[in-house]
Amino acid sequence: MRRRALLQAGGATVALSTVPGTATAGLNREDAYEPLGRVEIDGAAEAVVGDDGETAYVAGTMGFAIVDIRDPEAPAVLAEEYDLEVDGQPMMDILDVKVDGDTLVVPGPANRTSEPIFHGFLLYDVRDPADPNLRSEPYETGFHIHNCFLDGETLYVVGNGESENPLVIYDVGDEPTEIGRWSLIEREPDWERTFWLARYLHDVYVHDDVAYLAHWNAGTYVLDVSDPTDPEYISHVADTDLESTLELDDAEAQMGLPGNDHYSAVDEHGELMAVGREAWATGGDEPDGPGGIDLYDLRDPHEPVHVSRINPPEATDERYGGGLWTTAHNFELRDGKLYASWYQGGVSVHDVSDPATPERRTWWRDPNAAGFWTARVADPESVFVASSTPLIPNASTEGALYTFPIESGIETGDTDEISNPDPAVETIANADSSPGFRATTGAGVAGGALALEWLRRRGRE
């Protein structure tokens, strides 16, 4: 059985120089591609954009914020809801929000915890984004919710536990009601032999009655949800398989390549699918490093075809605890472009009109201050937004929402390699504390080591 141990930082040293986001390669300052605007968001994680393209909704770990982005050079917070409670129980570890029409979904906690906190989701009426109001009673699921997707009046929720990792579907048109489920373990029972976090249902994306499930090492599953009470399997893609996963120790199965399907989505036609793989260097066999984004031709959804791979930015320290994350995270496909986030690797825009030969058109990063969680289109002609998170361990990144121009820009810096600003780090090798999801027990915390890191840092300020 092949085993790969996670490296410890020990006394290793790395380069101290950084590549600041405002640096350019032999060009005048005014020629540089850079953000249009920025606004601070406490504890920022996922961000989504409303249907009108004028409002962004940002998960804030302990709550959420709503941002006016009509003037992208001066984004402004319209409303903040923090320190949420349900029947006296706190609602914490909120790393995702979703919006469709006038409804905003706020789920939590994102990670498993034994703390007595609310497990479920809230539905807000956001017809007036400056004054969000609960539109129904909080719905208790009894399980943590790492991510979800709202499609009209249908809410798709990832439900994870040690015995199975189902997709759970709710009708939220009136009072929330569970109406359907789909389980990987029911379809492929042998995956139950793996450590539960190695088959974790990390995220779900829905387009035109088709759901795309990022199931970590099991791959990305494509389901027909035209009848949400009875989802049906269409196909799936995978970068690894069950037997290979069983050969790895638990930590390696979660943190290292291949595998690690973290986020999957399609373009507006449903013909091109992107699969992002969140991973880190573990000191073992190749591939060993940050995860990239794979593109699949999905014109025939029954037979997906892999067409290309977009590699992540490189870093001088690519370990989980290295304080310098450049792995793929969330993204959007729109109008022949891929808007990608790479944590401290920055944000990039790729021309994928020919998916076999994707071309990077724009790239921006500031690894000392920004660790991007996602990139989302606001105005498809001119602006996209990207949320920066303060939740990266051993890093100095800040919570904020950035606005960027959609144009071919000058890449900042003079190299694709990013240097670690802080070599004094320690790699985390807890098999039940992985990057995209984790279990926690500590008292009085949001749940999740990312949230713990953020709270710890706030305590020093």
From the structure above, extract its key features:
5-stranded antiparallel β-sheet; globular; mainly beta; disordered C terminus; 35% strand; 4-stranded antiparallel β-sheet; disordered N terminus; 461 residues; Methylamine Dehydrogenase, Chain H
Structure description:
- Residues 1-30, 410-415, 420-449 and 452-461 have low confidence and may be disordered.
- The chain is mainly beta.
- It is 6% helix and 35% strand.
- The termini are far apart.
- The longest helix has 12 residues, at 449-460.
- Strand 31 and strand 32 (383-388) form a beta hairpin.
- It has a single domain (36-460), classed as 7 Propeller (Methylamine Dehydrogenase, Chain H).
- The strands form 10 sheets. Strands 8, 9, 11, 12 and 13 form a 5-stranded antiparallel β-sheet that branches.
- The protein is built from 4 helices and 35 strands.
Set out the fold topology.
Layout lengths: L36 E4 L6 E3 L5 E5 L3 E6 L7 E7 L2 E2 L2 E2 L7 E3 L2 E6 L3 E2 L6 E6 L7 E2 L4 E2 L7 E4 L2 E5 L8 E5 L5 E6 L1 H4 L15 E5 L2 E5 L5 E5 L7 E6 L4 H5 L3 H6 L5 E6 L5 E6 L15 E5 L7 E6 L3 E2 L15 E4 L2 E5 L5 E5 L7 E6 L7 E8 L3 E6 L11 E6 L11 E2 L20 E2 L8 H12 L1
Parallel strand pairs: 10-35, 26-34
Antiparallel strand pairs: 1-33, 2-3, 3-4, 4-5, 6-7, 8-9, 9-11, 11-12, 11-13, 14-15, 15-16, 16-17, 18-19, 19-20, 20-21, 22-23, 23-24, 24-25, 27-28, 28-29, 29-30, 31-32, 32-33
Secondary structure class reads mainly beta
Tell me which CATH architecture applies here.
7 Propeller
What is the C-level CATH assignment?
A: Mainly Beta
Q: What's the pLDDT, averaged over the residues?
A: 85
CATH superfamily: YVTN repeat-like/Quinoprotein amine dehydrogenase
Uncertain runs are 1-30, 410-415, 420-449, 452-461
The gyration radius over C-alpha positions equals 20 Å
Tally of separate domains: 1
Distance linking N and C termini:
47 Å
Biggest β-sheet, characterized? 5 strands, antiparallel
The counted number of beta strands is 35
Q: What fold name stands as the CATH topology?
A: Methylamine Dehydrogenase, Chain H
Overall shape:
globular
Beta percentage is 25-35%
Helix percent band? under 10%
